[in-house]
Structure to design on (88 residues):
C-alpha cells in the first residue's frame, strides 16, 4: 500500500535538512552558517481509519492524512468520497 492519502492524494515530499554551525550574532558571535544540506523525505500524517457511511449502510476502511480527516468531518463522508472518486 502506498503512503498516500486516499482523499487528498498527499504523498511524501522531498526536501533537505539544513545543518548550521556557529554562534548567533545576538549572542555575541559572528553568525550561523549553513554547513551541509542532507536530503530527507517529509511524510504525511497518515492514519488508518474505519468509517461508517450511512448512505451506503456499511463500513469503509481508508488511509487518510490528518487534513483529509478534517475534510471528511467538515463536508461529510459520502460527499467527500464521491468527490475523490472512491465511490460510484
Amino acid at each position: 500500500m502506498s503512503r498516500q492519502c486516499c482523499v487528498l492524494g498527499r504523498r511524501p515530499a522531498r526536501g533537505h535538512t539544513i545543518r548550521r554551525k556557529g554562534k548567533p550574532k545576538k549572542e555575541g558571535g559572528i553568525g550561523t552558517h549553513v554547513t551541509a544540506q542532507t536530503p530527507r523525505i517529509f511524510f504525511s500524517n497518515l492514519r488508518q481509519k474505519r468509517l461508517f457511511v450511512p448512505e451506503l449502510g456499511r463500513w469503509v476502511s481508508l488511509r487518510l492524512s490528518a487534513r483529509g480527516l478534517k475534510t471528511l468531518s467538515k463536508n461529510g463522508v459520502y460527499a467527500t468520497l464521491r468527490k475523490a472518486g472512491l465511490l460510484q
Summary: Residues 13 and 42 are 5 Å apart (CA to CA). The chain has one domain: 13-84. The radius of gyration is 21 Å. Residues 66-75 form the longest helix (10 residues).
